[in-house]
């Protein structure tokens, strides 16, 4: 038997291939949209993919389960509670998948979602591992507030938090301490709030060190779980629905993305300019938002741009553009691309901030802090700053005055590039807008 873990760093996502070496068959768990790594793994081991398990309809990425079924003929397994609209076989408490010397056993573990399942792996008659989806993470558990208005079944966060309390204690903590824990996400995901950097653990280690498994009452657990959860990106509910239906074949939808600059540009459509902030500030097209390519491009694209909202996608090279279109497809946004093309510069510019002048007279500026709420609570930086998180900025621009120059900051410079470009677009010549960028580090004690 072999367990292969695949990692998508941008989305902090883990997926798995379970290989029966005696039978040369594979079952996949929570695959990414790009199915090539799984097909390559199967080819490398001269094995056949016979099954794909979805632990729940994912909110933060689009799964490749339907394409894998179409390409390999594999059976898709998921809970009957999911209400899947694609051909599938239900996989709930008491159901098993047997291949070679491996038995996979379904556990209904609601909490992150009403339709969440975990999968216990038994090899040679002994439990070896559990794949916990978004129920149990390393050091944390899944958030319970994503299914109030999404999916086949909806539930209030308090109700799901109570279900999580019992799923963890009555389904997972009863497993042997030596069993390996393989979650669907690691540190950096917005599906939880306190994950470890580790990519696997054991039930025993989590029993000892995971806050969500410590002895406490249901009421204490619910209060702790609901407190300080991260924001919910705009695209999450859209991806739940898309995964419930099943996404189209990736190469097919990517081929439909227009990759030539239109003769006439739609002035009502934003440009998502993914070039480095230095290039962007020296010259960009009107209506551009500077979401730089990087580790969290997909998350911020889906937090700033709403589902069904058309946008242009621009980058500095053809290779980078192709990569960005692929990242856009990971959250199901490829069909919203009006056109994708290379941009070297533009007539719009953003002036650099005179740091010394700002430092000597911060009261002469309107300072906009676009960090998340928890960050501001933990470390307020400028006393009179206006706090609007980046993910709410477009909707709350009317709260900003323009009687002074505006300085935008985050915690390190990445988000402030996007935030300052959003404000500059809206305010035009009303006032100057500056990005404090990495210089914010000089003001953090």
Automatic annotation (TrEMBL):
It holds the Pfam family Lactamase_B. One of its GO terms (molecular function) is metal ion binding. SMART domains: Lactamase_B, RHOD. Residues 265-304, 361-445 form the Rhodanese domain. The keyword Chaperone does not apply. CDD domains: POD-like_MBL-fold (cd07724), RHOD (cd00158). One of its GO terms (biological process) is hydrogen sulfide metabolic process. It comes from the Bacteria. InterPro entries: Metallo-B-lactamas, Mito_Persulfide_Diox, POD-like_MBL-fold, Rhodanese-like_dom, Rhodanese-like_dom_sf, RibonucZ/Hydroxyglut_hydro. The keyword Endoplasmic reticulum does not apply. Keywords: Hydrolase, Metal-binding. This is MBL fold metallo-hydrolase.
